[in-house]
Amino acid sequence: MARITLRQLLDHAAEHEYGLPAFNINNMEQGLAIMEAADAVNSPVIIQASRGARSYANDIMLARMIDALAEIYPHIPVCMHQDHGNGPATCATAIQYGFTSVMMDGSLMEDAKTPASYEYNVEVTRKVVQMAHSCGVSVEGELGVLGSLESGMGEAEDGHGFEGVLSHDELLTDPDQAVDFVGQTGVDALAIAMGTSHGAYKFTRKPDGDVLAMNVIEEIHRRLPNTHLVMHGSSSVPQDLQDIINQYGGEMPQTWGVPVEEIQRGIKHGVRKINVDTDNRMAMTGAIRKILAEKPGEFDPRAYLKPAKEAMRKVCQARFVEFGSAGHADKIKALSTATMARRYASGELHAKFGASTGKVAAE
Ligand SMILES: O=C(CO)COP(=O)(O)O
Ligand SMILES: O=C[C@H](O)COP(=O)(O)O
Ligand SMILES: [Zn+2]
Ligand SMILES: [Zn+2]
Question: Could you list the residue range(s) of the whole structural domain that residue 260 is in?
């Protein structure tokens, strides 16, 4: 049984100064691709399921799939994480299905569209932290709303996110507020907003500091050196994946993602979890388009799903190496959620702050 909590993984990543990609799962091929990649380079794994994934695959199917993956690869620690939980009920049911980590995204209201007040975010996140930590399960919170600093638009591309114009204040996490938020909620990891957005259309040019505010990460890390930071919307949208889709009948307008070297810069400043979904979606779609274009007589799904899985494996493997998690799986001995629950109860996992603030986590 190699299931592990996010907190234990990120503590290890911080100690050894690396980052971990978190890949989204919806089906068996994606699960196998992630695990084959991790096995090839000896990396621990974060697999995450969105609410959409849970309703697409069915909670029971997802839970059994993760059990199967952990059994096939018993030597790889696997964290199963709820991506963008929209309220306590979503997080609680994820825990019931064996997730070892949940994201309570209180930057948006329960509709996952309307930007929430700071007070609401603190209250709902704190509630989920109390519930999850008593089960030994980790919690990621989010402060600041994802969206484009180029256009000011919130991101509604993949069905959640705000559909309108936001101010820079809303699109960039405030470092002072981040300190207060971590202190008041006791989250294990904090997702911050600094110009990334979900999906393929993040930037209309290779991003610079005006539209990808890595300085916000550096400032938050300076104030919260012991808090694990999370970057959402961090697919790199590689040119070769855009090209293969377009070469085989796709119509994706030219676009730019988050360059891997910017993520590596983030990892030097406290970023420990990096969410990547779009790159894998594009890799699979490109491979499927290619097979169907080249072999129009083909009708066995395995003929295109196997190359799709292989294309995703390559992306996952590259990210494990680029973010530095490769080589660490066999160094980690997973603690049970029961052990983690005791550690939370004892206070040893409470947020540690720089001496200057003198705050302690309320939990
Ligand atoms: O942040 C993500 C999931 O929470 C995924 O981001 P991308 O769309 O950039 O892959
Ligand atoms: O939001 C992050 C992931 O890309 C999941 O997207 P989804 O909600 O369409 O499953
Ligand atoms: Zn999304
Ligand atoms: Zn996200």
Answer: 6-342
